[in-house]
Amino acid sequence: MIRLRVNPIRCDGFGMCAELLPERLTLDDWGYPIVDGRPLSPELVALARRAVAACPTAALRLADEAEPHR
Fold it and tell me: Exposed, middle or buried by CB within 10 Å (0-12, 13-18, 19+), for 32?
């Protein structure tokens, strides 16, 4: 399964990701994403790819469950 990951160091808190994928992303009080770490359903993978592509700082990525968590 595929999961969504965020690099908190790269993230500048623009919040576009949560607008594009509210099913898995919410924002904290400062506008930084909180990722729901559950695997993405096949229906959400395309939406997650759109959110990853729209991230202006490349802080989001999709990770295969077999890949080690970084």
Answer: middle
What is the full per-residue pLDDT of the chain (70 aa) written as tens digits? 899 999 999 999 999 999 999 999 999 999 999 999 999 999 999 999 999 999 999 999 999 877 555 5
Domain count, the chain: 1
Do the domain assignments include residue 70? no
Q: What are the DSSP E strand ranges found in the chain?
A: 2-6, 25-27, 33-35, 60-64
The CATH number of whichever domain residue 41 belongs to comes to 3.30.70.20
Determine the structural domain holding residue 9 and report its residue range. 2-64
| 69 in a structural domain | no
Take residue 50 and report the two structure tokens written for it: 């759109």
CA–CA distance, 21 with 29 (Å, rounded to integer) = 18
